[in-house]
Design a protein that fits this description.
The chain is of the alpha+beta class and 445 residues long. Helix content is 20%, strand content 49%.
Length: 445
């Protein structure tokens, strides 16, 4: 400090005043000056160290909230993992080939209240929120039971995987039945899959525990039908964090609800379709990512001995630029795509002729995972059918929007509240309105 230097100078002056001291010092080349210079250097270093300590303290203090949140998130993840490990240890099934098989799914309790105007029967496979019929109820039928197995290793460093999921929704399979399931041959860069799953031209879905038996926004932009298919996927790393994905599928359509033609009109129940998708994914970090894809579908519907085209072009996007923000959605345009899960009609009659109905659809969701336990979701979707070929009271379009809040009570227990609104517009008619409110409680296993 400055007073140290002052005291040193004072001591030097007193020493110099003593007899014989100045002569002794004269024989030594400026020793006190060297000492004083050394003290100055040490003082500068001390000040620099103090400044660095203050800076480090401020940085640590600024990072403490993030560290606490990360610690909480890590604690929750560890809790989930421990519960999953314990459950798998209890529920592990030994297959005939002694391969590991695990039980998974969820028990889902849903209570709902519906306010609507008008009564209209939409086929169960396409009803998104309600048919406009007011009422209230509760159900466990959307609960899901699934099995997952890890198969043997195969040539080329690959492995066989499989899964199947079933629910109790009568509208899907007349009671307990298959939702989706696949057998997959997986290698590092490619996969071959056979089974029943969602179409690859619209792979994303909104998040909703209130609508799992028939997913949210069915008939309003979400082509959701789980159908038999054979799929090939090729993956290539463009950079350490960027990957290109190509998919091709032979898909089996569902033509049952694609038209409202006279009962005597012959319509083949299912038709083969060719589908392809090209996508790219990029991971900025373990919590931020980007993915996008374009896809196409082509098939022919057989109606009364005639072939009517089914064509769709689609695009899908998912962006998560921040840990607490995710935006996703799909847009599509084409003709006769009710056979994939779009809103009917797919095929209509004009006089003695049959024509495919053209339409456009899309949906978007904004998800806000504000903490590791609490998430807010808002989503909306719409489909518009061309008026040509539509008759009175046939559906011309839908508009659906909803929001939910999901809170993880425990590692495997999810509590949710959701409210949604649906408009159904008919040809030559004003349509119906419906509001639906759901409270859900799900136990995941």
């Amino acid at each position: 400090m400055w007073w140290d230097r002052y005291l040193c100078k004072l001591a030097c002056a007193l020493l110099m005043a003593l007899p014989g001291v100045d002569a002794a010092l004269a024989q030594t080349p400026a020793p006190m000056e060297k000492i004083l210079d050394r003290l100055d250097e040490l003082e500068k270093q001390n000040r620099a160290l103090l400044d660095e300590i203050r800076s480090l303290r401020e940085e640590v203090k600024a990072r403490q909230p993030v560290g606490a949140e990360a610690a909480e998130d890590l604690k929750d993840r560890v809790g989930v993992a421990e519960n999953r490990i314990a459950e798998q240890a209890q529920s592990k099934v030994g297959s005939g080939q002694r391969l590991p098989v695990s039980l998974n799914g969820m028990i889902l309790f849903d209570s709902n209240l519906i306010h609507g105007t008008g009564v209209y029967s939409v086929p169960a496979n396409y009803a998104s929120y309600s048919e406009g019929v007011p009422g209230a109820g509760a159900t466990l039928s959307q609960s899901i039971i699934g099995l997952r197995f890890e198969g043997p290793s195969i040539a080329g460093g690959g492995q066989i995987h499989g899964s199947i999921a079933m629910d109790f929704v009568a509208g899907n399979n007349n009671g307990f039945g298959i939702r989706n399931g696949v057998i997959s041959f997986d290698w590092r860069d490619r996969s071959f899959t056979a089974g029943q799953d969602k179409t690859i031209i619209a792979p994303l879905e909104p998040t909703s525990f209130a609508h799992t038996g028939v997913p949210a926004l069915s008939g309003a932009g979400n082509l959701w039908l789980w159908r038999p298919q054979i799929k090939f996927e090729e993956r290539h790393a463009l950079t350490p964090h960027t990957k290109a994905v190509f998919q091709a599928a032979l898909f089996s359509t569902d033509e049952i609800y694609a038209s409202s033609l006279p009962v005597l009109t012959y319509v083949e129940d299912t038709r083969p379709a060719l589908q392809a998708r090209l996508g790219v994914t990029h991971d900025w970090s373990d919590r931020t990512k980007f993915s996008a894809g374009i896809a196409a579908h082509e098939s022919e519907s057989h109606v009364a001995g005639k072939s009517l085209p089914s064509r769709v072009l689609s695009g899908d996007l998912l962006v998560k630029p921040l840990r607490w923000l995710e935006v996703s959605g799909t847009v599509l345009h084409g003709e006769n795509f009710a056979n994939l899960g779009g809103l009917p009609l797919g095929v209509a009659s004009v006089g003695t002729n049959y024509i495919p109905i053209r339409g456009s659809a899309g949906w978007m969701q904004i998800a806000l995972p504000v903490t590791s336990r609490l998430t807010f979701d808002a989503y909306a979707g719409r489909q518009v059918n061309a008026s040509r070929g539509l008759t009175l009271y046939q559906i011309a379009g839908t508009l659906v929007y909803a929001g939910n809040v999901l809170y993880r009570v425990g590692p495997n227990v999810m509590l949710g509240f959701e409210g949604g609104h649906e408009d159904i517009v008919f040809a030559g008619h004003t349509g119906i309105l419906a509001n639906r409110y759901d409270a859900t409680l799900a136990y995941l296993f």
